[in-house]
Amino acid sequence: MKNLLIISSTKNSNFQLSQEIKSFFDKKENISSSVISLEELDLPLFKPSLEENFKKNNSFPIDIEKVKNKILSSDALIWCSPEYNGGVSPILTNVIAWISRATEDWKDGFKDKHSLICTSSGGNGLNFIKGFSLQLNYLGSHVMEESIVKTKKKDLNISEFESILLKFHAKFSS
Ligand SMILES: Cc1cc2nc3c(=O)[nH]c(=O)nc-3n(C[C@H](O)[C@H](O)[C@H](O)COP(=O)(O)O)c2cc1C
What we know:
With 174 residues, the chain is an alpha/beta fold. It has one domain: Flavodoxin domain (Rossmann fold), CATH 3.40.50.360. Helices cover 44% and strands 21% of the residues. It is built from six helices and eight strands. Strands 1, 2, 3, 6, 7 and 8 form a six-stranded parallel sheet that branches. Helix 5 links the parallel strand 6 (114-121) and strand 7. The longest helix has 16 residues, at 158-173. 33% of the residues are buried. Bound molecules: flavin mononucleotide (FMN). Flavin mononucleotide is lined by residues 10, 12-14, 82-86, 120-123, 125.
């Protein structure tokens, strides 16, 4: 059984996209998929001084631990996140910073893991995809070249959507 974690940064169209992706994988055998919605969690803004305070008690914020454990036990990650100001949304940047500090080695959550980037954005989300892909590569992930993109004007092309998910499935399930 392979564990697939779908991470939605926001709770509207990107969460809906996450659910559509989960429905696709629910029909596949030997895949257990789950969705987490970062916007629903209590994720304080990462600041070195705040980390110091938590570390004094040998702990991290509870919801950071929750996301960390989900990430560490997953075989593959799918990210559904909007483009904000031509880049990565603060919710996602924040969680990446925390995970890199809450794991033993900063790359532990991402290293050698297959990742697929998806976005539902106002426009084509290309700057987010490029920027986030660079970041995940830097963290040691294997990022799929293709991405799933939904915009305010253009809905998903179902055959393209399924073909990208099938290719991703082949990568992490073999
Ligand atoms: C602060 C902010 C900045 C944004 N910047 C961009 C942008 O650079 N490019 C873009 O395509 N959409 C941009 N958008 C639009 C969001 O990508 C769009 O509303 C997206 O659907 C939000 O995701 P959600 O429906 O899951 O909340 C921005 C929205 C906000 C709130």
